[in-house]
From TrEMBL:
<dbReference type="InterPro" id="IPR051205">
    <property type="entry name" value="UbiH/COQ6_monooxygenase"/>
</dbReference>
<dbReference type="InterPro" id="IPR002938">
    <property type="entry name" value="FAD-bd"/>
</dbReference>
<comment type="similarity">
    <text>Belongs to the UbiH/COQ6 family.</text>
</comment>
<keyword id="KW-0274">FAD</keyword>
<keyword id="KW-0503">Monooxygenase</keyword>
<keyword id="KW-0285">Flavoprotein</keyword>
<dbReference type="InterPro" id="IPR011295">
    <property type="entry name" value="UbiH"/>
</dbReference>
<dbReference type="InterPro" id="IPR010971">
    <property type="entry name" value="UbiH/COQ6"/>
</dbReference>
<dbReference type="GO" id="GO:0008681">
    <property type="term" value="F:2-octaprenyl-6-methoxyphenol hydroxylase activity"/>
</dbReference>
<protein>
    <submittedName>
        <fullName>2-octaprenyl-6-methoxyphenol hydroxylase</fullName>
    </submittedName>
</protein>
<feature type="domain" description="FAD-binding">
    <location>
        <begin position="8"/>
        <end position="366"/>
    </location>
</feature>
<dbReference type="GO" id="GO:0006744">
    <property type="term" value="P:ubiquinone biosynthetic process"/>
</dbReference>
<keyword id="KW-0560">Oxidoreductase</keyword>
<dbReference type="Pfam" id="PF01494">
    <property type="entry name" value="FAD_binding_3"/>
</dbReference>
<comment type="pathway">
    <text>Cofactor biosynthesis; ubiquinone biosynthesis.</text>
</comment>
<dbReference type="GO" id="GO:0071949">
    <property type="term" value="F:FAD binding"/>
</dbReference>
<dbReference type="InterPro" id="IPR036188">
    <property type="entry name" value="FAD/NAD-bd_sf"/>
</dbReference>
Length: 426
């Protein structure tokens, strides 16, 4: 078996997006002696500093559950993220045109917020700023992983940087290159995909009435939609992040319409809880699928983030599930390192998979069942949905379960041998 001295690095992270960068930071915090190489397809920006950040109306954002805040606190990153995080203090779930509704309030759970909305760019800049203090993390960008093969003591990772090809030998490679992972396909991981037959339209919108830090989950006969409070934490605002589920034909009509017409169509679907929709920003869209990989580990190889699973966005569970998986992986690798075990050993990686499996399965079921149940349009199901929403609102036990799921507290909390919180907030 090869020794560490014969390796170029300990772990290669294929993909430096939000999942890959968070993993690199967590590994650097948990195992300071570890050598980590991140291979990222896009070049690092010359102005990739938090001081250069300017909030944009059209910025894409991510919903972070309360449990994800706890993770970022553990990584020493929450102090930075909180500067531009909009709290979700209330969640309102309803069935459009029906009487059933469920309301969650952070104060009922003795918390400041149920979750937060953070611009992706701010999240990325904050991660990069923290990683710049981690000498054990090396970036290769722009570059991409062309292939992975098993060798004695670990894996051989073929990396292309421009016209230059090189081999990196490591104990383990973590694939974090997104939901359309070419590397996952190349390596032959079995992917299960269910198509919802709809598209998600993502945009920021403004309304005449303040959102009062409320997130709305609205189920309609044409599909679910979500409005998340956006635009700052200092005062209630009038901007929200929209996730709108549309059939293909309806999406084409929306994209061809003027901004005023888009606001009118949105008004018809959402209603008047926030008054008139006064503005809609740049629209992005993508097809909706539930994608899972049942076996996410092999000797020396593990999938994380969207490479391992993609969920329907309306429930807001995807990145939060990825974060919990990342921390479970870090915990397992920390234990393996302490025991002198190879980080890419199948025993260690399978232990991670089993520790994370129940959280993964429960979150997938929770997210998918919301879409399936509210997608059924016959009268008996409508009555049952109304009864269920009212029951959730009235029964403390059911409401507590639903709140914990929404707050990302249903999974197992990793426990580390050493504190992870270091100097990122100091």
């Amino acid at each position: 078996m090869e020794t560490d001295r014969q390796l170029d690095t300990d772990i290669v992270v294929a993909g430096g997006g939000l999942a890959g960068a968070t993993l690199a930071l967590a590994l650097a915090r948990a195992i300071p002696s570890l050598r980590i190489t991140v291979v990222e397809a896009f070049p690092l920006s010359a102005d990739a500093g938090t001081e250069s950040y300017q909030p944009s109306y059209d910025a894409r954002s991510t919903a972070l559950a309360w449990g994800s805040r706890l993770i970022f606190e553990e990584l020493g990153l929450w102090g930075a993220l909180a500067r531009h995080a909009t709290p979700i203090r209330h969640i309102h779930v309803s069935d459009r045109g029906r009487f059933g509704a469920t309301r969650l309030n952070a104060a009922e759970h003795n918390q400041d917020a149920l979750g937060y909305v953070v611009d992706n760019r701010w999240l990325g800049l904050s991660l990069m700023s923290a990683l710049q203090t981690c000498d054990q993390v090396t970036w290769r960008a722009p570059a991409h992983v062309q292939g992975v093969s098993n060798v004695a003591g670990g894996v051989s990772v073929q990396v292309a940087e421009g016209d230059t090809a090189r081999e990196l030998r490591a104990q383990c490679v973590v694939i974090a290159d997104g939901g359309r992972s070419g590397l996952r396909e190349q390596l032959g991981f079995r992917v299960d995909t269910s198509r919802y037959g709809q598209q998600a339209l993502i945009a920021n919108v403004s309304t005449a009435c303040s959102h009062e830090f409320t997130a709305y989950e609205r189920f309609t006969d044409a599909g679910p939609m979500a409005l998340l409070p956006h635009g700052g934490s200092d005062r209630p605002g009038y901007d929200s992040a929209l996730v709108w589920t549309l059939a293909d034909e309806a999406l084409e009509q929306i994209l061809a319409a003027s901004d005023d017409e888009r606001c009118q169509r949105l008004q018809q679907r959402f209603g008047w809880r926030l008054g008139r929709f006064t503005r809609i920003g740049q629209c992005h869209h993508y097809p909706l699928t539930l994608t899972t990989v049942d076996e996410v580990v092999r000797p020396g190889i593990v999938l994380i983030g969207n490479a391992a699973h993609t969920l329907h966005p309306v429930a807001g569970q995807g990145f939060n599930l990825a974060l919990r998986g990342i921390m479970a992986l870090v915990e397992q690798l920390q234990q393996a390192r302490a025991q002198g075990e190879n980080l890419g050993s199948l025993q260690a990686l399978r232990a991670y998979q089993e520790n994370h499996r129940q959280d993964w399965q429960n979150t997938v079921r929770f997210s998918d069942s919301l879409i399936q149940v509210f997608g059924l349009d016959f009268p008996a199901m409508k009555v049952a949905r109304d009864a269920g929403l009212v029951g959730l609102d009235l029964l403390p036990g059911a409401k507590r379960w639903f709140a914990r799921s929404a707050m990302g507290l249903g999974g197992r909390r990793p426990r580390f041998d050493t504190p992870l919180k270091e100097s990122a907030d100091d």
